[in-house]
Structure formats: structure tokens, C-alpha cells
Amino acid sequence: MSAGLPARKRVAILISGRGSNMAALIAAAKAEDYPAEIALVLSNVPAAGGLAIAAAEGIATATIDHRAYGRDREAFERAMQAVLEAHRIDIVCLAGFLRILTPWFVGHWEGRMINIHPALLPAYKGLDTHARALADGATEHGATVHFVTPGMDEGETILQEAVPVLPGDTPETLGQRVLAVEHRIYPLALRMIATDYTLL
After folding, report:
1. Where would I find the H helices in 64-199?
2. In the CATH scheme, what architecture does the domain 9-199 have?
3. Distance (Å, whole) CA 125 – CA 162
């Protein structure tokens, strides 16, 4: 880092799978003027493909298998919290992290945890967003980066970008165009949050 640039915020990315949005954040953070560094990738799935990608980039990784905690979601999250604290994390990014988080965990990271959702919120919260948009005859779809709150996909929007729904679209073709948007706006949103961190 060049002299004069402020210290970069330490970011943890939480994943459950291949981590394509994780990879986009890692790539963006390589820029010298990017205000955040990816300090940790944490997964609840030991075989998550994104862990190998992060390790190959020299990023610390950790796995906390939620299955070991049964139905005690808070115990699982307290184990995650201990790892996040050990790595001195400032901001948490969810990138395909397939766990519902408790109010305890969300409250601890209020204003410092963000998520990417494949729809133009508040439309199509939850799963199967592309198929639902097509079934409704939507003319546009897209992606949203938002703060995480206890309500699913209800947090304040940080960035949003639309794509047109084209004739003959399938959930797969529409999803591919939305994913390209996700990979573009998630790093931009993290840049915004890391830059304005002192205001949170």
C-alpha cells in the first residue's frame, strides 16, 4: 500500500459453495486503492469450492460445520464470531452463505454486514428469484446489495442494478446476466461501505 492511503478495512466473506461473488470481491481487493482487504473466507460447508480458490490466493480460510451444532444456531454463530474476532474483522460479506442468521449475530454486525441478492428488492425475496420473475412476466430483473437485518432480504439497499428480461429467457439465461451484474456491483458496494466505515 502506498504511503498516505488509509488502513484498509478487514473483510470476511462467508460462503457455502463455489463463491463466484467471493472471487469477484477478491479480484477487486487486489487494486492498490481499494479500501478493503479480504482477510478471511469462512464456510459452513467443509467441501465448499470457494475455500480452495481463497487459499490459492493466499487468503486465510476457516470452516465451521453447522451440522456439528444440531439445531443450536446461536452456538454455531458464536463459534463463527470467535473466528471473526480472532481475525480482527471489520466488515462481513455474505456470498452464497446458505444459513439463516439469528438476531444475536445480525445485531452484533449491524451496519457492518452486507449481502448480495439476485433480484431487485423488495421484489422476489428468498429463493428461485429468476424463475419467479419469469413466471410473473417481469420485464426487468437484476441484483441488489443490501445491509443484513433480522428479516430475510429486508435490509437497506446499498446498490441495485437492473437487466432486461428478454424474449425466450430461461431461469438459466436470465441468471447468467444477473450474475454478471452481481459480480460488478458487489465490489462497488463494498468499496462504498469500507470508505464510509466511520459513518456506520
Report:
1. 73-86, 103-108, 129-135, 171-195
2. 3-Layer(aba) Sandwich (3.40)
3. 15
Kindly provide the b/e burial profile for residues 123-153, where b requires at least 16 CB atoms within 10 angstroms of the residue's own CB: bbeeeebbebbbeeebeebbbbbbbbbeeeb
Q: Which amino acid is at 34?
A: Y
Q: Reply yes or no: is the peptide bond before residue 122 cis, omega within 30 of 0.
A: yes
Looking only at the bridges linking them, the beta strands covering 113-117 and 140-147 are antiparallel
How confident is residue 4, by pLDDT bands cut at 50, 70 and 90? low
Domain coordinates in residue numbering, the chain: 9-199
End-to-end Cα separation, the chain, in angstroms? 24
DSSP per residue over 185-198, as a string? HHHHHHHHHHHTGG
As a residue count, the chain comes to 200
Please state the pTM of the whole predicted model: 0.94
User: Given this model, what pLDDT does residue 106 score?
Assistant: 97
Which residues are part of the catalytic machinery? 117
Cβ atoms of residues 120 and 162 within 8 Å: yes
Residue 24 has phi, psi (to 5 degrees) of -65, -40
